[in-house]
Amino acid sequence: MASNTLGEAVYSPVHLLFKAYKAVQDSDFVRYITQKEEEYFEDENGASALTYEELIAMATNKYNALIAQGCLGVKSPSEQKIVALTLQIETLNGDLKLSKGLIEKLKKSDPKKEGNGKKKKKEINKKRQKRDEK
User: Fold this and answer.
1) What is the pLDDT at residue 59?
2) How many domains does the chain have?
3) Which of 3, 15, 98, 129 reaches 20 to 30 Å from 75, CA-CA?
4) Is residue 115 part of a domain?
């Protein structure tokens, strides 16, 4: 453990690079980095001898290959489903909105909105009170 920054132990630049590379918003790149990280921790001699320069070179090559293939930034199947479902929900919400004409009719027919509703309620309460007094 070399130092402690913001409560987090710093083991080596390689650990920091793995953490940083996994924050990239591309599922293929993150999967590649995760595979390399697992190899790094599981292999006793090979991958654990990986230097930060080698990791940077491997990550850069993978990144450039994804760009060349036009695959960088492509969403994973689960992310694509989430986007599709969100779009369907937004479409349904738009379809479920009341038309302006219907909203106007509801406003006109609602006695509570007209102001007469309170007067009628008071009149009914007075009639009940008089009836109860007898």
Assistant:
1) 92
2) 1
3) 15
4) no
